[in-house]
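Why this split exists: single-chain examples teach little about how molecules sit against one another. For that reason, every record in the complexes split bundles all components of an assembly together and asks for one structure covering all of them. Below is a record exactly as it appears in the raw files.
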Amino acid sequence: MSSNRSLEPSALSLNDLPWQIRYNNDRCTLCGQCTAVCPVKAIELKVYRKRKIKTSVKKDQQHTNQYDTFYGIQQKTRVENACIGCAMCTMVCPNDAIAPVKNPGLDRLKFHINQQGVPRRRGGRRNSSESVLDQIKFTRISMLTDPALDAGRHEFEVKTLLGRVLSPEDSMKQLKEKGWMPPVREIYPLIIGGMSFGALSPTMWEGLQMGVAYLNEEMGMPVRMCTGEGGCPPRLLRSKFLKYVILQIASGYFGWDEIIHAIPHMKEDPCAIEIKYGQGAKPGDGGLLMWHKVNKLISAIRGVPQGISLPSPPTHQTQYSIEESVAKMILSMSMAWGFRVPVYPKISASSTSLAVLNNLTRNEFAGGLAIDGEDGGTGAAYTVSMDHMGHPIASCIRDNYLNLARIGKQNEIPIFAGGGIGKNGNLAANAAALIMLGASGVQTGKYVMQAAAGCVGTEEDRCNVCNVGICPKGITSQDPRLYRRLDPEDVARRIVDLYLSFDTELKKIMAPLGRSTSLPIGMSDALGISDKAAAERLSIKYVV
Amino acid sequence: MCRLFALTSKDPVSPMLAIKALDVMKEGHDGSGVGLLLQGLGGPLEEMKDAPILSGIFTEEGIRRLDLFMMEKGFLTKYKITLKLPKEPVKGTPKRDIYLIRAYELPEGWEDLSQEEISQRLMMIRIQIRLMGEEKQDMIVFSFWPDTIMIKEIGDPMTLGTYLDLDRKELHARIIMAQGRQNTNYAINLYACHPFFIRGFCTMTNGENTAFIPIKDFLSTRKFPGYMGYQSDSEVFAHILHYAMAGLDLGIDAYKHIITPLQDEALSSHPDAEFLSHLKKSCRPLIIDGPNCVIGTLPDHSMFMAQDRKKLRPGVVGGKPGMFAFSSEICGLDAVIPDRDKTKDIQPMHIDTAIVSPDRQEVKICRQTEALNLPL
């Protein structure tokens, strides 16, 4: 702009942007790959004009100007083209000439991502690296009083239960009377949390399924994956691999027409049914698949028209009381599979979680409770929901477990924790901490995307464009030009890597605590934290 | 690591036999305490099989409060064994006023009660006395049960045995369990001393119970008032035993399936696979993680030994018809039954429960892979 012209309020300078492109003209070959790959068109080829003034000291010689041009890359400053920091430009640059750098100051973009009155929506996470789970240490190490176990050589049983477990007395009674035993699955305690077909690209989904199948069939690890709210591909519904899948039903009921019709053709029962009432990333808000991603395939699987946004209602339409909503839905779902499949609700962590749990304790068909904390991820949500709504997972899990323990039902309703587990890369430590606080297992999504598919999202508001289908890694895109970047075989291999390394790390935590034959659920005496208030709140040791 | 020794004998024998075994295993415990259980009593108490015997340690004030309390409940003293103590106390042992062993006549009106009701009432009275004692620090009660004496004290087992004159005939017994304590916590609470007794079931253990907290949380919410205390992480072994056999009506062959269940293939190929799979799930919080060697007795005076899943603790069973012993180390066994056939000594492994039934003819090994006697 010129200095004497008026300014648009949302006219920003480079300094106002959260990510700034550092560009080295000396190394650039002008190949154009960076501008082609940028998902938000934040950079463009620019012709720069350069003027050199040649002054003269001689009287008879005039001062002259020399004009020149050169080519280079320029960063755009418009709101819609603000760099997202994904660094794909760096990845494709053959000469290391370009890279986004986080603005060390406070950016101004935040004040302007609401053009046309639409607040910012994005995918991703809360964008805060703070983590109580990371602060928890495992302090009860077996020393001389009892020998620490050998994580590499001792026999371990790293499994958990999903489903309603009867009390020993009720179990004996039912066995004696040959009564109904609720279905219970023995599964691996790290579940791939609900990421829908639609939110994820076909290649990502296929890769996850292949990885899960390999872990089960070849490695003997009973790993399970939840579909999220987007239905399930018809071939998978009719395959033997369905037993490794937790089918999710949520308030939009997407894909359930297909699922219900496939029931008579199912060779295997699904592992479980998860009824989603809430999601940690956007509690009290429904699922959202924006129109950009609703192509022919997705519309067919979900049973909806193409090219429209799919916002699920915040609550199930049947929900005018917890009894109606939870009890009837659990019963309906149980009945659909002849009471052979565990059915459990998933809710956002909330100060009202205890009320849900108490209700479930009185419902003999409730197979567990999944609680998703504020650090959970999402494919699309309003930023305000992601950043400001929700409850931390640690204290919510602890409260719920202690509440169950008070009434002696801590083994009867398994609690699964989700939301931010491994958000700073400490997956096994976070999972172990939650298990010792009382979770029967954990669910994780973002870590899987990061580790198995190279998602570039971080807790610094990097990328986060999953919602509009322009994922530069092809993980959350429905555009074949993008998702072809991801080879399902590679994703499957990385899933196996992830689980095997998680398994070793979990054993490296359990073994020194003298635990191996059962998952240390509720072993809170092993935990310590150097924050006194947190120690008190979680009823664990304060250590300094 | 504590040292354990248990003896089951056709004829009553002196508790000093077990103390002697602890003494030869002295390298393995620090002499910081001893716990004794005596059942199948000889001597005068043999004639009063139904009279509950209260065992504990009392101050003068405590005994006065106890007498008032018991009188109020309608209990009359039937017989008592007085442990006269030498004037000079032994080093390291606190001075006590009274080591109480007193048999009571059941109150009037109890004759028509069911055995279950009597058992429950006796347990509740023991708990009441314990709580009263904890309040004023004047009473410690170990057991209140027919044909059962328990003695626990801080100090070296052999020194204490002599000091308390345990060799006397009145204390001869057919079932003796003894533990030489390796003290891992400095503030010794006698309630943390093994063996642990609950309604005819008794266990002692060595090793640390790493899964203690979840197990304790589970037991203490079973709505059974006897599942309390837990000054020691080993107390849960006795309570799990009681819960399995009295609560769930299972046999001793199922105990190990609760504390150390089978895994994967061994479980699925078991003759009672379906039952065990349900048992494992519903009793999941009771799975121990060792390292533990558990020795116990049952109300019918069977004696058993079970090891943790990895068999990380030593333990040996041997003897001859009429007398068998369960010991942490072979030297303990040698000291008490030297004339046994040593080739028949058994060291139970990770899936074994070694059981000597009340006829004391042989050691039976019950493997977890074998079919169970189920109450179904």
